[in-house]
Amino acid sequence: MSIPEEELERGRVVAVDVDGEEFVVWRGSSGALGSAPRRCPHLDHDLVEGHVAGDELVCPGHGWAFDGCGQVYKRNELGRVDPKGNVDVLTLRVEQGTVVVDPR
Question: Lesser CB count within 10 Å: N end or C end of the chain?
């Protein structure tokens, strides 16, 4: 599966289905690509409705942050970062103007 690069501009979150599994893919402010399961493991919020902060995707529910490489964190208002575990990610690469999602 592939996504045209123009559909994945910085700060945009796109839902993808890979072999029957739902994920989201986003491009961070540095241009880095990230992915995570579509549903937040905390309370099942739809991450396609999240927002990109820097290179991380932030859940619209309770602010869990996904680094795009599988790490999940909760940042509180005092700046403390609490690890919340790991999630599955997709292997992504850019090839001839498209973001290619490698099969799982």
Answer: C
- Domains, the chain, ordered by start: 2-101 (2.102.10.10)
Number of H helices, E strands in the chain: 0, 11
The C-alpha atoms of residue 3 and residue 9 are separated, in whole angstroms, by 11
* Tens digits of residue pLDDT in 34-60: 999 999 999 999 999 999 999 999 999
Cα 38 from Cα 14, distance rounded (Å): 9
Q: Cβ neighbours of residue 6 under 8 Å, at least 6 residues apart?
A: none
pLDDT in tens, 80-94: 999 999 999 999 999
Neighbours of 20 (CB within 10 A): 6
